[in-house]
């Protein structure tokens, strides 16, 4: 009897444990499902498309690879047949190859159908090609400017940068300034682009449009819109726009003065440009010298004036004892930025094709040990006199 009671108690204990595990698993699953549903809800709320995992059709990929090899050896007929089969399996690039097959007997309308399939399946270059055809008509399609813009937008979203550039001018010609502004402030996924320098081209175009909108040149004047577009152009590494918008925020020209933003945009111009950042560096130097929106720092001011080639301001600070040896170690990026500059020929950085003199210069500038004198370091440089002048600035007593 006692044994039965013990067995019953044991069974109840095991059952309780199993029940506890089941409840935990259910709760965990509900939490996971809830999180997934919340992510979907958030994506919908933010008007984003929920990305789907790409489905790889191994047969289509195999056919595409075989067709490509046949094309290399000029077996065009067999290559086209395999591209056609792979396209039937929704292989986007195979459809593109079929549309571009100059060696096939397809008429323009049939080639256009292959291009449409390629675009529908996500090959951005096919969308761009179709868009250019719709712009002028021909190649199997009728002229349709509206459809052309839609296809350029799809190609741009898919990572074909040429369409992104084309859209700017299309929006301008259509006087759709809302879309033009949106395109200029948009953050592009450059990692998808085959020509990453196209981002700079977009920045250039956006800066030009911003100037016209700011001045009201053949475009309705809209200063707030122009400022947003200047900022967008700067973010796209077109640093001339960074200088323009930085000075606006510094001086409060047609915008509320904002010294934090002024510093941000002036730095973007000063430190990204090797030879053209002088004016931005000069304005930054003034900010540090006067303590405008930053902690007053004569040493940084001296370095920025040096980078800008502002000799008069630099000499005043040097007279008061501020020079390169006073720069803190954490400010290395500032002096490294100066070294890339060739704005001031008198202080060209010590470079050499004989051997790397960088360590010797570092040791001298930061007052660490070096067995070489200024003259020895300078003689190893391409421009000994400029290097000697660069290293001969008289510092006050080192902080370290």
Report what the structure shows.
- With 400 residues, the chain is mainly alpha-helical.
- Among the domains are: 98 residues, Tetratricopeptide repeat domain (Serine Threonine Protein Phosphatase 5, Tetratricopeptide repeat); 53 residues, no CATH class.
- Helices cover 66% and strands 0% of the residues.
- The chain has 20 helices and no strands.
- The radius of gyration is 32 Å and the shape is flat.
- The N terminus and C terminus are likely disordered.
What is the compact description of this entry?
It is built from 20 helices and no strands.
Short key terms for the protein model shown above:
400 residues, mainly alpha, flat, disordered N terminus
Helix content: 55-70%
* Individual helix count: 20
Tell me which oligomeric state these chains represent: single chain
State the order of secondary-structure elements, H for helix, E for strand: HHHHHHHHHHHHHHHHHHHH
Envelope shape: flat
Tell me what portion of residues adopts beta-strand conformation: under 5%
Named CATH topology of the domain at 61-158: Serine Threonine Protein Phosphatase 5, Tetratricopeptide repeat
CATH structural class of the domain at 61-158: Mainly Alpha
């Amino acid at each position: 009897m006692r044994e039965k009671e013990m067995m019953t108690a044991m069974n109840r204990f095991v059952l309780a444990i199993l029940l506890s595990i089941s409840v935990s698993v259910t709760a965990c699953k509900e939490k996971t499902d809830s999180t997934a549903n919340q992510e979907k809800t958030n994506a919908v709320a933010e008007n984003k498309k929920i990305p789907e995992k790409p489905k790889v059709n191994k047969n289509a990929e195999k056919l595409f690879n075989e067709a490509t090899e046949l094309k290399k050896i000029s077996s065009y007929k067999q290559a086209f047949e395999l591209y056609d089969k792979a396209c039937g399996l929704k292989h986007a690039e195979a459809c593109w190859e079929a549309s571009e097959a100059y060696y096939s007997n397809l008429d323009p309308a049939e080639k256009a159908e292959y291009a449409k399939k390629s675009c529908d399946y996500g090959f951005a270059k096919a969308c761009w090609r179709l868009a250019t055809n719709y712009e002028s008509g021909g190649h199997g399609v009728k002229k349709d400017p509206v459809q052309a813009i839609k296809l350029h937008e799809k190609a741009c979203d898919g990572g074909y940068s040429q369409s992104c550039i084309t859209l700017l001018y299309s929006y301008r010609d259509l006087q759709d300034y809302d879309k033009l502004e949106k395109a200029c402030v948009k953050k592009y996924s450059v990692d998808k682009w085959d020509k990453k320098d196209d981002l700079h081209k977009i920045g250039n175009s956006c800066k030009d449009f911003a100037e016209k909108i700011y001045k009201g040149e053949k475009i309705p004047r809209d200063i707030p819109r122009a400022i947003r577009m200047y900022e967008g152009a700067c973010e796209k590494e077109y640093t001339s726009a960074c200088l323009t918008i930085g000075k606006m925020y510094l001086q409060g020209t047609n915008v509320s003065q904002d010294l934090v933003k002024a510093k941000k945009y002036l730095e973007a111009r000063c430190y990204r440009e090797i030879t053209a950042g002088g004016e931005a560096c000069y304005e930054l130097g003034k900010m540090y010298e006067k303590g405008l929106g930053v902690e007053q720092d004569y040493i940084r001011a001296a370095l920025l004036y040096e980078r800008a080639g502002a000799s008069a301001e630099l000499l005043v600070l040097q007279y008061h004892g501020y020079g390169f040896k006073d720069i803190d170690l954490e400010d290395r990026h500032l002096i490294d930025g100066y070294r890339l500059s060739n704005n001031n020929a008198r202080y060209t950085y010590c470079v050499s094709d004989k051997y790397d003199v960088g360590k010797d210069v570092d040791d001298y500038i930061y007052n660490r040990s070096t067995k070489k004198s200024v003259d020895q370091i300078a003689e190893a440089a391409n421009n000994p006199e400029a290097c000697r002048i660069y290293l001969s600035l008289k510092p006050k007593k080192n902080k370290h």
